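check these tokens.
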Amino acid sequence: MICVDNLFTGSRENIRPLEENSNFKFIEHDIIAPLFLEEKIGQIYNLACPASPVHYQENPVRTIKANTIGVINMLGLARRHGARFLQASTSEVYGDPAVHPQIESYRGNVNPIGPRACYDEGKRCAETLCFDYHRMHGQEIKVARIFNTYGPRMALNDGRVVSNFIIQALRGDNITIYGDGSQTRSFCYVDDLVDGLIKLMSSGKDFLGPVNLGNPNEFTIAELAKKVLSLTGAKSEITLAPLPTDDPLKRKPDITLAGEKLAWSPKIELEAGLKKTIPYFRDKLGA
């Protein structure tokens, strides 16, 4: 197994136990630059791109490059090795959806010139590249549209709502909700997502995706804040701040296709997942 990461948002600490395995190899590399490997590879999981606004908006042009030049480089690597290629796309391709829940045939409602476009449109372009490589070169591809995912080993500065709320609660800071808290998200625990990705990669050649991978149970952001406060025992107050531009008001996956094609559905519900995640952040903050 070869792990490639530029460590922009990733942490070497997360893979320390794996580095003791002689079958594991780490390469620090940014996929915007071409990558050549001597080892024969059969599968490529491309999850390379910052996934939270605080990080992908830090350098939006580089985010677009990761989803265009970087994806072209990885598809080229897959083609040279005859490897199957899985692209980690995102629910953000649906934008602020006019269809709810979101089904794969929905083409989305994305602002192509907004502050989130570097990620939203970048991922949409990445999907286009995958399907064009498939049509032009017969490249084996799999495209997963990933909905909000959380769990242990997220960075303290990750910037996503679950980690933000947990850290604020554990520090005794106020919980900051952007908007009025009525906007919704569907939260998938990381173990469930990994199971879905593996099943997608192992699926038959005729199933390319895109396929939604996420937990269809929908919660308001205010409900999430209250769950975090309850589970951490924090006395933090909830404060409101303006909703960022183009932030989606609704988000819920239709996972019918994943059930039919992959026999997949998430097993770990939000409260159970939070109980697995909170101790990780408590330990990190303690350290």
